[in-house]
Amino acid sequence: MASVEVRNLSRSFGTFKALDDVSISFEDGGFYALLGPSGSGKTTLLRLIAGFGYPDQGHIAIGGESVERVPLEKRNIGMVFQSYALFPNMNVFDNIAFGLDVRGVPREDAAREVRRALELVQLSELETRRPHQLSGGQRQRVALARAIVINPRVLLLDEPLGALDKALRLDMQVELKRIQREVGITTIFVTHDQEEALTMSDRIGILRAGQLVEEGAPEDIYRRPKTRFAATFLGEANIFEGIWTDGRLRLADGTLLETAPGAGRGATGEPGCCLIRPEQVRIAGENDGGTGNRLEGRITRRLFAGNWTTVFVDYQGKTIRVGQANTDFLKLEDGSKVTLAFSGSNTIPLQS
Amino acid sequence: MNGNSTLAAHRSQGMKAAQLLFPAYLWLVLAVFLPLSAMVFFSFVTEMPFTGKPWSMTVANYAAFFTTGIYAKLLLSSLRLAFEVTFWCVVLGFPAAYVLAKVLKGRSREAIFLLVILPFWSNGLVRVFSWAMVLRSGGILDTLLNAVLPFKVDIDLIYSYPAVIIGLVHSYVPYIVLTCYLSLQAIDDSVIEAARSLGASRFTVLRRLIIPLSLPGIVAGAVLVFVPVIGSFMEPRILGGRTGTFYGTVIEDQFVAVFNWPLGAALSFILLAVVLFILAAASPVMRRSA
Ligand SMILES: Nc1ncnc2c1ncn2[C@@H]1O[C@H](COP(=O)(O)OP(=O)(O)O)[C@@H](O)[C@H]1O
Ligand SMILES: [Mg+2]
């Protein structure tokens, strides 16, 4: 097991920059999610770490040792592909044993390792099946077992749950997390599903058009994103645009919003924006004074989702989402006037 | 659904299939079955009927194969020729198919593909005579080599066994390239990448994945080459000269030179029997690879 250090990595295809000066470090034993829209360079980054192709510029170090000149079969990395890429001419056992075979591990040792990996992914009864006789979730587990049985320094997963249906996906998320904890292996996990990234990882890196936009712990990125892209990509967001005035944001109607201190604040006179999450907005009572930001709006729609209610409030032609676990919201009527209240410390200035 | 209506549905589907298949079967009967049965008949007569000469039924034509020994010897050398040609076709065709399927992309793939298919589009006779010009002493290859090499070489391959092999391999290698190309195309690139990331060398990937996974294509192509080469006569005759007497050329002689059609027909059916026997013997291997 090892840390992975990526510095100033760039990779172009023709004139198209798939990765543009990306630096990121993955700590030993951590579970990282690389998140970004399709085409943002996630797979490219993962493949460069694995050794499929070489970067145009930049450095990659695994366990503190530079791997620029190490060909992929010597990198000792476990990789799980979105398509699983199981060997169709081999049964489950032989698929998992493949990596040990090519390393020349003696038969009995290999068999023991394979059985242990099979137990870990709970597939012990299926070792003689062929890949085409397995369900999607089972193939996924075989692919995982095959990758970890070689005891790799790093585990790379490229949208491993992308091809599974929702229920199976949730099961596999839990399973994957359990296996990663048990083995304690540094894991880099590519996904375009923000919820998956939030629930599973210790740290998240957000990519956009080949650049690393933001990186940090899930709660930090969610609560205090630095960029507008991260704020809107991860979770639901209300974004206000305006002009910075002494650390406050002046909206089009002249209202001044208090904001939390942060790098996103611009100098007075500069245009800017800030974020307030739906669950941080309250619907204030008639004579509920209080401090912080207050906006008057009109309810346009209410969405009841069992444990959660979202109320859509029109404010100056802009829709603001208010989300609460409170079903009292349902008693409000569409079209009624409400006051929205949210504290300045939860109003996060953003770099656009 | 209840049992009766499913049965009815099946039956009407069967009817539809029969209607669709009818033209194909009619064609098969006319084009294959009738001529073939005529040949079976010819192989059991003493003289061709309809020529005015008296004729009777006999098995002498088949007996000739077993009594003289010369035909069996020729059949063996034809089999050996077919094995060698098939071997060289696989050795040359498989790597070409691999490069086409897994290395080249886009334009260059199309261009090379065209070059591989080209022999299919040219007339067989033209193809063989071109080889004759190339392989002759004082021919194209000879002249070319002597023009670039500082020492004198004398290439005179024409009318030799290697010339026959070269001509046949050139004619038949596209079959192997095409069948291997198809089965190599079907191998997911990420399967190869997965093997590499697990620590396998390129050679191990070839041995444990690419060859096993493309075996159906190799076997199918080999059959497509092997069977017609046993009976081939044009390449052996034109490129082999006096050394080019094989089973196929003897059969051809019976039809176009000596006009002993009954013997020619009998020899053809013996060849057919041998080919079927070989395919049957090899079928467990083929079934396993498919
Ligand atoms: N081998 C390649 N040749 C040309 N373009 C490529 C290649 N691989 C990736 N790209 C391009 O690079 C961009 C990033 O791709 P990728 O890393 O696969 O994105 P992601 O995995 O985030 O969806 C895409 O626009 C893709 O078209
Ligand atoms: Mg991708």
TrEMBL record, chain A:
Quote one Gene Ontology molecular function term: ATP binding
| Keywords assigned by UniProt, alphabetized | ATP-binding, Nucleotide-binding, Transport
Q: Which SMART domains match?
A: AAA
Cellular component GO terms, alphabetical: ATP-binding cassette (ABC) transporter complex
Instruction: Give the signal sequence positions.
Output: none
- ABC transporter domain: from which residue to which, for each copy? 4-234
UniProt GO BP: putrescine transport
SUPFAM superfamilies listed in its UniProt record: MOP-like, P-loop containing nucleoside triphosphate hydrolases
Would you say which domain of life the source belongs to? Bacteria
* The keyword Nucleotidyltransferase belongs to this UniProt entry's keyword annotation: no
Keyword Iron among record annotations: no
Xref: PANTHER family: SPERMIDINE/PUTRESCINE IMPORT ATP-BINDING PROTEIN POTA, SPERMIDINE_PUTRESCINE IMPORT ATP-BINDING PROTEIN POTA
Q: What is the protein name for this chain?
A: Spermidine/putrescine ABC transporter ATP-binding protein
Q: Which species is this UniProt entry from?
A: Pleomorphomonas carboxyditropha
Taxonomic lineage of the native organism: Bacteria, Pseudomonadati, Pseudomonadota, Alphaproteobacteria, Hyphomicrobiales
